[in-house]
Specification:
- The structure is a single chain.
- This protein has helices at about 65-75, 175-190, 230-250, 295-305, 310-320, 325-330, 335-345, 350-365, 375-390, 395-400, 405-425, 425-430, 440-449; strands spanning about 15-25, 80, 85, 90, 100-105, 110-120, 125-135, 140-145, 150-155, 160-165, 205-215, 220-225, 255-260, 265-275, 285, 290.
- By secondary structure, the protein is of the alpha+beta class.
């Protein structure tokens, strides 16, 4: 019904959107939050489960202090205040993959509060307030795609440590949300508190969306649950904003509800109503002492923080003369910013390396986990391919780019280089006649492809 968003364009100028974000980040530790069961992805179902994880009678939680340290480092990086005394509580609700019937979380007094993060948009900067970061345990998984008639329960994820990062409703567009989440991901990866592999579920987002007429009162918000890619987050927000505007323009009422985004149809759909107050019957966890953090512990963790993305971005601009666009892209992912500086160790031009990474590596390997190239291999990859094609020696090309991990990527790189060679015959002739430096011109043209 709402799939074609062009029908909403007439509404956009007189409306504002109000958006808050909840980021659920799995803490990168070897064991879970309250048990010694391994914390790992892609193991066989129900093979990483302790007695505590499956709520065996008599089992007791034992707090993983490494989770606490990583959460505090994350909070400090996000300019949060550390509560020196916080509490764990039980949040009661029923779900098949929550065998205890409650989740251990922090509700009344969470570990971290009152933070903020400034994002840089093309034409302005904006500070997003962070209401709180709380420690809690993840649930298991309900699997419905194994048997058509049955739902299966996998408790491998149950009890994994989570940080729930909750913002105030300070965001106003899907673009702001995307930039904010990318900045948070950069901080989490830099601190080492989460690997942020959204496709594996280690970072998931809920967004609360409402609309209002410009200068008017906030509208009724709807929550979109379990978004696992930045692309889906932006699309879900854009659709939901326009859906709510259309409802109000037709003199109907937006109801407070939880919705789910269907990527195949590019729509959000109703999941459950939130109009009735849900009593989770919170009470303090009787099996865990209050979590007390000393000033010395806080200072020690603060002093061990690595260079954060905002400072690294500023350094890249000043030290390497990169522009804002290049610096922002490189520091969004700690892997690529480190890869960039490793390439510079080979005495390469910073702006050229930045261009190569952004225009070649990003394009051929959008998933950083697929990259097995060393900086040395990457820096000389394009130059060698062009040289071999010019010399007519095509057989070794596949061997040189084998670390791109797939035949399709090899074919893409080969195509770019073939196209450049065919478009610049005069420069190719100069190279063949002995002008070796002309290879840099051809590499530059390949980069722009």
């Amino acid at each position: 019904m709402y799939r074609n968003l062009n029908i909403f364009r007439s509404y956009s100028t007189s409306w504002e959107s109000v958006i808050g974000v909840e980021i659920h980040a799995q803490i990168k530790t070897t064991t879970k939050l309250f048990s010694n069961a391994p914390n790992s992805f892609a193991s066989l179902p129900n093979t990483l489960v302790s007695l505590m994880d499956c709520s065996y009678p008599g089992s007791l939680p034992s707090l993983n202090t490494r989770c606490v340290s990583l959460a505090i480092k994350t909070g400090i990086a996000l300019n949060c205040k550390v509560n020196k005394k916080s509490y764990f509580e039980r949040k009661h609700y029923f779900f098949p993959d929550l065998p205890s019937g409650y989740q251990i979380t922090q509700q009344s007094i969470p570990l971290l509060i009152n933070g903020h993060l400034t994002i840089t948009m093309p034409d302005y900067e904006k500070t997003i307030r962070i209401q709180q970061i709380k420690l809690e345990q993840d649930s298991g998984k309900t699997l419905s795609d194994i048997d058509r008639d049955l739902s299966m329960i996998d408790l491998n994820r149950a009890g994994t440590g989570l940080m729930e990062i909750v913002t105030e409703p300070d965001l106003s567009s899907s673009n702001e949300v995307a930039i904010f989440i990318k900045n948070v991901i950069g901080i989490l990866q830099t601190v080492g508190s989460c690997d942020c592999n959204m496709d594996q579920g280690s970072l998931r987002c809920d967004v609360n969306v409402s609309v209002k007429r410009k200068g008017g009162k906030d509208g009724t918000r709807c929550e979109i649950k379990n978004l696992n890619s930045i692309k889906f987050i932006t699309k879900a927000i854009e659709f939901e904003v326009q859906r709510q505007i259309k409802i109000i323009e037709e003199n109907e009422i937006v109801t407070q509800e939880t919705r789910f985004y269907d990527a195949s149809k590019d729509i959000t759909y109703f999941l459950r109503s939130k109009e009735n107050f849900v009593d989770y019957k919170y009470f303090f966890e009787p099996d865990l002492l209050p979590l007390e953090i000393s000033e010395n512990e806080i200072n020690s963790l603060k002093n061990r923080l690595p260079e954060l993305p905002q400072l690294k971005r500023e350094r890249f601009i000043l030290q390497y003369k990169l522009n804002n666009f290049e610096a922002n892209l490189l520091v969004e992912d700690n892997f690529y910013s480190n890869f960039f500086e490793q390439c510079l160790g080979l005495k390469r031009c910073p702006t050229k390396i930045a261009n190569w990474i952004i225009n070649i590596l990003f394009r051929l390997l959008p998933n950083r986990r697929e990259c097995t190239l060393t900086p040395f291999q990457f820096c000389f990859q394009v130059k060698f391919v062009i040289k071999l094609i010019i010399e007519g020696n095509k057989e070794p090309i596949e061997d040189i780019v084998e670390n791109f991990n797939s035949q399709s990527n090899y074919q893409n790189l080969n195509f770019f280089c073939e196209e450049v060679i065919s478009n610049y015959p005069e420069q190719v002739a100069k190279f063949k006649s002995g002008n070796i430096n002309i290879i840099n011109f051809l590499v530059g043209k390949a980069v722009k492809k």
